[in-house]
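Hi X.,

You mentioned you wanted examples for the new student's onboarding notes, showing what a folding record looks like when two proteins sit in one file. Here is a clean example. The first protein comes first, with its sequence line followed by its structure tokens.
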Amino acid sequence: MAAPLALTMGDPAGIGGELTLKAWRALHRSGPTFVAIDNPERLAALAARLGMEIPLHRVEHPREADFALALPVLRIPLAAAAEAGRPDPANGAAVTAAIERAVRLALEREVAGVVTNPISKATLYQSGFAYPGHTEFLGVLTGTPEPPVMMLVSPGLRVVPVTVHVALRRALDMLDMETIAAAARTAAQALRTDFGIAAPRLAVAGLNPHAGEAGALGDEEERIIAPAIARLREQGIAASGPWPPDTMFTPQARGRYDAAICMYHDQALIPLKTLDVTRGVNVTLGLPIVRTSPDHGTAFDIAGEGIADPSSLIAAIRLAADLAARRTGATA
């Protein structure tokens, strides 16, 4: 039997539990299969609250349950009762424990990959979490020597932000030639190995309006971005730019590249989420395991109301299964 994916619970006060239940309902007949690393009592109470008849099976091993008959759950205890819409730092240890267990299972090949439900960084910081977000934490857990890279994927666009979960002012200070080139190299390698694109094309965004207007509106393009592109070309990577950020996401422009390398978080995520937020997926590149996530947050404002859209999580599960199958095929 093929290994299932591991699906972490995310913040127990957010919409992750509802999404997990809805994903099982959508996929239990067709797959891909997954095991929820969560609190089964919480999921059962949530299903009852939402009027969802979802059979749960607490398991001790990812492959024990028949996914078609019941949602398998590897139990994570909670320190405090989960209340929809009211995050509690007391449960921070449970949130991180679910991630740690999923990663350990993936490294041991007991699961095919990891799909993470949304976490609340602010809440985790209150519990002592020392990492900017999932991406950095996963890099430490997997012992990845190079910083992992975040890619957002939708049916019509792939984007990679060079700087991610930092204040914009700090992000500008973090940009340099090697940081840009390193993120692009990781993206190019992942496009080849995980997405099956033999000769990936990268479009590198400028930082300033009009990509600096030949230095009149900023010199970062000439000083750090163009040299990074030149270095990538020397290394055999088809990189182009710097492109004006306000025109590189048009339908015509998107057809000329396989991924856009963007300078900061919102430069990458705004166009992707505007185009297709319901099917956007967060993929962590550069890890020895497959990891995907929905492209949205915990949505505390609608948690427990039964209206959360599971489309992005379902897309994340399907993409994780595809990536895992491609990796398995490459190493078979």
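Then the second protein repeats the pattern, sequence line and then tokens:
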Amino acid sequence: MASQTKSGPALYTGAASTAAPVPAGSAPAGTRLWFVDHLRLVLVCGVVVAHVASLYAGGWYQYHDPIQADVLTTIGLGIPSIIADSFGLGFFFLIAGYFTPGSYDRKGGASFLRDRLVRLGIPLLLYDLLVDPLVVYVARGRHGSYWSFYGSYLLQVRTIGPVVAWFITTLLLFTLLYAAWRALTRKRSHAAQREASLPGTRAILGFIVALGLVSFVVRLWWPLGWWWTPPWWLHLLSLPGGFLPQFLSLYVLGCIAYRRNWFAELTPKMGRDWSLMALLATLVAVPFVIGGVAAGQLNYFVGGFHWQALGEAMWEAFVVVGVCLGSLVLFRQRWNRQGRLVKSLAASSYTVYLIHPLVAVSVASAFSTVALYPLLKFGIAVLIVLPLSFLVGLVIRKLPLASRML
């Protein structure tokens, strides 16, 4: 039987800033959507920045910098995690869903499942058995022999909670559910519906309200920062309970968007209007959050039967929809061409996701004795970790069989 595991008391913990990029796919009708590659690249850079911020905001992956962050630094470095929670993670699942139906159509059920197991299942196992223990070893200060540490690591009960592997687990679960649905409905026609109209204002608003309400109800039992975690030491099956409604609904919405070609058909007016709605929702929410902090009620936003939790859930729904629509239109209009450098970087985004924790923790550990203000150390670390992660990613993808999985 599964258990619920709390990963921390903060408002934005657990799922915050731990999302992965989606393995590259093909666009409908053989047309490459370069702007989606650019979006994926920007999103994974955001993941790296958020994780580096977490290192200096109070610790991440059992790493704690000797120079403690003050209140101002903690708030400032918490912003990347808030951004990741509100729309960054859901955006990844929307993109993943968009590329799922076409892949299934081209490959068929058996080949589709085999490909997904290779590209998601094998990296998941490799991360958990090879990368994760090495990151923990470095974060703890590299005390003693690594092989001695590794032996005890494999036997101990995990205490750090899900960190990175959860996204691959969740995406693999959604993929298996999609394949099962296609198998059960194989007699139906799943041809692309290019003539289908875009969703109207009522439909989008209805989706936002439904998502906010369902998220609020789910968080009565699974607040933000709580995870559905199996009782054994492998945390491969950990799922972010409080965010599941957003992730699942956007994955499904991505599948629908592919069939109806929404990514290519979204109008500039839709992008502009819903971006403004997201901004307006944020401006309305800020005073309430400040008031909650002043009153010592920040945890009321996490979940439970509180009006603050309902407001948090509704705000997230407005923001994720507004940012997704606005970004898709913006990138399609302005960044739908790709040079060799950006193409190479975008192709390595999945690999960067898998290896960036080791790069980030190693860089932070190397500079741990440098006495600098945490915000300054964060800025310097980002300038090192980002390019270094992509450089390592490019090298790894050249290894035999790596390109098949990554």
